[in-house]
Amino acid sequence: MPIGLLLVQALNGLQLGILLFLVAAGLTLVFGVMHFINLAHGVQYMLGAYLGATLAAWTGSFWLGLVLALPAALLCGLVLEVAVFRHLYGRDHLSQVLATFGVILFLNEAVRTLWGSAPLPMAMPESLSGGIPLMPGLLYPTYRLAIIAAGLATALLLWFLVERTRLGMLVRAGASNAPMVSALGVDIGRLFTAVFGFGAMLAGFAGVLAGPIFSVEPGMGDNLLILAFVVIVIGGIGSIRGAFLAALLVGLLDTLGRSLLPELMRLFLAPSPARQAGAALASMLVYVVMAAILALRPAGLFPARGA
């Protein structure tokens, strides 16, 4: 494979990893702090994309759409938490899985009713519509680099909030021993609501960023949610650092695997069978790596403190 194409695919993998991190960060916080399995986290990514596309069309500005979509995604997450999810915290995991799967079905149909089944277009900002030369004759889209930069900045901010602020201290304490934190006078229910809403806003932020390069359509978060679960399992449940590093690993494995494995299989097979075998192996690669990591480190690569 030419070096230029390999570089492009590596950057695509980093961009996918950043989007995975933004989704997985909220998911790992909710699961690590509240021990709540939220299969509906992917629909919050979808809602963010739809809200961003709609608000950008109404205002005529991608940036205004992004700014307005964040509090809207936060509000949607808080409404879901108050109306549905908080009633499931004391239930077993099977009840949580079934209930949140029902939320997925309901919201996917609600989106089809409100916006239709056809993909919703979302234009990227003109200031980021060009390309940056990586090497002579090879341009890489500026917007994709901006996604990587925005994700890195968000990861740094999230690390600071969790590790260096009082709210982050309460979140970490709540993850370790929620009854003790509650006994010390902290409203643990309000803390859980804040964590859930923040996670929903992060997923919505990822949806808005993904809107101009992926299809904004019903069910768009389902496949990403599966990879996000892989990320938090590999990285360690409740660990922001683990979610970040595992998301980059999964993004690179998924993207480079789909590019390199068909070429590698051509060393052993004819071109047509090589493409088929390479595609099949690429789709399995992330899960094979996850299984290997779990066999060696059941708590994940970077488990949260106390895990």
From TrEMBL:
<feature type="transmembrane region" description="Helical">
    <location>
        <begin position="97"/>
        <end position="115"/>
    </location>
</feature>
<feature type="transmembrane region" description="Helical">
    <location>
        <begin position="226"/>
        <end position="256"/>
    </location>
</feature>
<dbReference type="InterPro" id="IPR052157">
    <property type="entry name" value="BCAA_transport_permease"/>
</dbReference>
<dbReference type="GO" id="GO:0006865">
    <property type="term" value="P:amino acid transport"/>
</dbReference>
<keyword id="KW-1003">Cell membrane</keyword>
<feature type="transmembrane region" description="Helical">
    <location>
        <begin position="143"/>
        <end position="162"/>
    </location>
</feature>
<protein>
    <submittedName>
        <fullName>Branched-chain amino acid ABC transporter permease</fullName>
    </submittedName>
</protein>
<keyword id="KW-0812">Transmembrane</keyword>
<feature type="transmembrane region" description="Helical">
    <location>
        <begin position="277"/>
        <end position="296"/>
    </location>
</feature>
<dbReference type="Pfam" id="PF02653">
    <property type="entry name" value="BPD_transp_2"/>
</dbReference>
<keyword id="KW-0813">Transport</keyword>
<feature type="transmembrane region" description="Helical">
    <location>
        <begin position="57"/>
        <end position="85"/>
    </location>
</feature>
<dbReference type="GO" id="GO:0022857">
    <property type="term" value="F:transmembrane transporter activity"/>
</dbReference>
<keyword id="KW-0029">Amino-acid transport</keyword>
<keyword id="KW-1133">Transmembrane helix</keyword>
<comment type="similarity">
    <text>Belongs to the binding-protein-dependent transport system permease family. LivHM subfamily.</text>
</comment>
<feature type="transmembrane region" description="Helical">
    <location>
        <begin position="12"/>
        <end position="37"/>
    </location>
</feature>
<keyword id="KW-0472">Membrane</keyword>
<feature type="transmembrane region" description="Helical">
    <location>
        <begin position="191"/>
        <end position="214"/>
    </location>
</feature>
<dbReference type="InterPro" id="IPR001851">
    <property type="entry name" value="ABC_transp_permease"/>
</dbReference>
<dbReference type="GO" id="GO:0005886">
    <property type="term" value="C:plasma membrane"/>
</dbReference>
